Amino acid sequence: MKKRWVVVVAVIFWANSLHAGEIVKGCGGLAYPPFMWKEGGKIVGVGTEVARIIFGELGIEIESQCFSSWSRCMQEVKKGRTDIFFAASVNEERSSFADFTKNYLSEVPVAVFVWKERRFKYEKWDDLIGKKMGKILGTTYGQKFDTFSEKHLQISNVIKPIQNFKKLGKGRVDFLPIGLYTGLI
């Protein structure tokens, strides 16, 4: 049986009061379809569109910003230079500087991708101990898994998911946890 864990994706708001007629700056990941991806120098996708609808009903315009990485987007929100993430998962670190919506955009099943010729038994997280994980810099897979991975796994960070798939193909990482839909796309 294939096991997955779920990461909740939410629109996150910087703790500022907003008024009709204002422009809200938002950013997101470069390659996490269908929720967000880079297109024409902007972040687009379901997360962006939901934010536009919600804020549009309040008379607030959304300006999409595209940074060099997801990690950079988070830093811009943390420093208050950008107002929202278009879609993000909840963890302790992010909760220290951002407020999360009560209603989530979607639950995203996270799957473990492996190279077919180097597959291994995976039924529980302990089966990953000692393995090398490919990770997108700044991502979270939920607080419990983040804590587990920092303690038990070797982590190789990259900026774009495609870089991880290339590392997986060359045997430089053993597995990738990634949103099921993004991984399949």
Commentary on this structure:
The chain has 185 residues and is of the alpha/beta class. Helix content is 27%, strand content 31%. It has helices at 46-57, 70-78, 92-95, 143-152, 161-170, 180-184, and strands at residues 5-13, 23-27, 31-32, 36-39, 42-44, 61-64, 84-89, 99-100, 106-113, 132-136, 154-158, 176-179. The strands form 3 sheets. Strands 1, 2, 6, 7, 8, 9 and 12 form a 7-stranded mixed sheet that branches. Strands 3-4-5 form a 3-stranded antiparallel sheet. Strands 10-11 form a two-stranded parallel sheet. The longest helix is centred in the first third of the chain and has 12 residues, at 46-57. The relative contact order is 0.21.
Layout: helices, strands, pairs:
Blueprint: E1 5-13, E2 23-27, E3 31-32, E4 36-39, E5 42-44, H1 46-57, E6 61-64, H2 70-78, E7 84-89, H3 92-95, E8 99-100, E9 106-113, E10 132-136, H4 143-152, E11 154-158, H5 161-170, E12 176-179, H6 180-184
Parallel strand pairs: 2-6, 2-7, 10-11
Antiparallel strand pairs: 1-7, 1-8, 1-9, 3-4, 4-5, 9-12
